[in-house]
Amino acid sequence: MGETLLDDLPALLNGLGNSLLVSAIGITVSVVLGIALGAARNAGVPVLSQAIAVYVNVFRCTPLLVQIFMLYFALPEIGIRLSPFQTSWIALALWGAAYHTEIFRAGFKAVPPAEILAARALGMPARRTFLDVTLPLGLRATIPAATTMAIGQFRSSSFMVVVGYQELTYVANGLVSQTFRVFEIFGMAALMYFLTCTLIGAASRGFETWLRVPGTRTAR
Amino acid sequence: MTSTASDPIVSVRKLHKSFDKLEVLKGIDLDVRRGEVVVVLGPSGSGKSTMLRCINFLETFQSGTITVDGRPVGYEAGDHRRPLGEARNAKVREHVGMVFQSYNLFPHRTVIENVMMGPVKVKKVARALAREKGMALLAKVGMDHKADAYPGQLSGGQQQRVAIARSLAMEPSVMLFDEVTSALDPELVGEVLKVMRGLAQEGMTMIVVTHEMGFARQVADRVVFMDGGVIVEEGAPGDIMAAPKTERFGNFLSRNLDQ
Q1: In this predicted model, what pLDDT tens digit does every residue of A45-86 receive, in sequence order?
Q2: What is the DSSP letter of B174?
Q3: What keywords are annotated for this sequence in UniProt (chain B) (predicted)?
Q4: Which of A54, A196, B8, B116 has the smallest CB count inside 10 Å?
């Protein structure tokens, strides 16, 4: 750490890189899980559907911080030891997937029954209908909500400070305790979070525009 | 089993269907032969559309049997009435084309992609061949110039003609039309009816639920009048539409001709 903010920048950027790494893994896993679990819920697969509902409820109704503590401090008692890095992305993935499941379930549910009926009438079995009609239409409708959740997941990567993972907040906190330049360093960290989230939002809107179907008003 | 022109393509026997406690179909018997055009008339709520949806098993039914091209629909033939299961229902639906009141095109696919969807995804036809056949079908319904447009960019009449081409692409044994002109502006009705008239002339087997009396009179081989979940009267349009045998059909006709 140096005399000016400029000297601290490489360390902060390194922290930001770590935040992005666990977030990217956590978001990707949670979106894939969310689509699969949301589809199973939407289809009403017996037993599995109820199990998913329980999972969603558990992870939606307990604080992320408590979930992190469970993963990092409680699991070793039953012999499962996770590194700070593993804890970080797994926590983001499990917590996020609960929300993404509900987001995608809502998206699939919003697909007009008329289009699904047309696919069935053509002789497309249920799985084919899901892949070619429900999924592409449902995903388009869920981009804004899923993006909001992904931004939330990235911001929440700052919670991983509690397990000592060297993400942006951890690094900033360390620098502050050594230099006492609280305002500058936390301000810079906040700016980095802000700019990253803004970029994610802009990319999502670009993706939405790219997927826009000519002749429809909605963000397909 | 070899089929002849007189074999029924669609055979409905003692069909009963209820939504909860409301009995919508109260024992329907209907045979449709190859190349026959059957027009189903009746007031709303008479069960016409429900019967149509039972034929390709978009609706379950409580009792009775339906066969299409000799294949049982929905349930195993015989006494046990076991449901057929997803794959076999899908197989039956391949042979039954259906056109809906609200078109139901896939909004995220272009016109030609909509038409290719069935052959490519269900029948595993090569894309190039499916495209070639699809373009020919679009030409037939007068929509080949819009092949690369999206459904949202078309008028209702145009969308409905594409929907007809999409069903024809599966080369069905029978085509079901469920009030396909009811959602259209009056000036767009003609273009859709013209396509249907062309199909009838080519010998396509068709079951048409409609409120278009002119179409029934001119195109139907047989008119079926439904009311209250039963078939009240049926016969050649020249006979029964000119001289209805029942009061119910007579009243229905005079109400609809007044318009």
Answers
A1: 999 999 999 999 999 999 999 999 999 999 999 999 999 999
A2: E
A3: ATP-binding, Nucleotide-binding
A4: A54
